[in-house]
Amino acid sequence: MPKKVGLFFGTFNPIHVGHLIIANHLAEYSDLDEIWLVVTPHNPHKKKNTLLEDIHRLTMVRIAIEDFPKLKASNIEFDLPQPNYTVNTLAVLEEKHAELNFCLIMGEDNLKSLHKWKNYEVILERYPIYVYPRITPKKENISHLDKGREVTKINAPIVQISSTFIRKNIALGNDIRPLLPQKVWEYLDEMNFYR
Which CATH number is associated with domain 3-159? Predict the structure, then answer.
């Protein structure tokens, strides 16, 4: 049986305990063998000016997951054309790792806006999607998922922590250490990021 790898995309700016809770939950309580945290240089739906350099965000992901053997950091998108589109990344990953089966991991909020992604029909047709719960303000139409291969809702904890909140509060001088893995906090602090 080929190994089943869940791809958890994010800018991880910075990675926080919420990301780890979700990634580890999927690693331990789903049929996925590994979770790859794919560090995205530029999400087409986000402004780039608040992003730390790619290498620093990748370093923080590596630091955060070093005690979790089922979690891996991936920089696959660093050498791909910008902005990054998931459908292109999936094609490159399949080419490089034909021996693996790839699945997508996303929050409910992303699932609802999936129809806005480049070639989303291809993604729905070819890749199973694992969805973790989010508190979303309004119910949206997700009829575009009817064409999908497989969407699995995961009963993971709902985590309401955002990297935006962390960055803002570091800038304000507030103590947000409980929201970050200890070594990630030490790295951020030492590098004087987000201040």
Answer: 3.40.50.620
> What pairs with residue 3 in β-bridges?
100
Secondary structure of the chain in HEC code, one letter for each residue: CCEEEEEEEECCCCCCHHHHHHHHHHHHHCCCCEEEEEECCCCCCCCCCCCCCHHHHHHHHHHHHCCCCCEEEECHHHHCCCCCCHHHHHHHHHHHCCCEEEEEEEEHHHHHCHHHCCCHHHHHHHCCEEEECCCCCCCCCCHHHHHCCCEEECCCCCCCCCHHHHHHHHHCCCCCHHHCCHHHHHHHHHHCCCC
Q: How far apart are CA 118 and CA 88, in angstroms?
A: 9
- 139 burial level (CB within 10 Å; 0-12, 13-18, 19+): exposed
Average pLDDT over residues 175-195: 96
User: Contact 83/44 with Cβ under 8 angstroms?
Assistant: yes
Spell out the residues 6+ positions from residue 127 whose beta carbon is closer than 8 angstroms to its own.
90, 102, 103, 104, 149
CA gap 60, 101 in Å, rounded: 26
pTM of the model: 0.91
Residues 26-60 have pLDDT tens digits of 999 999 999 999 999 966 666 666 789 999 999 99
- Residue type for position 104: L
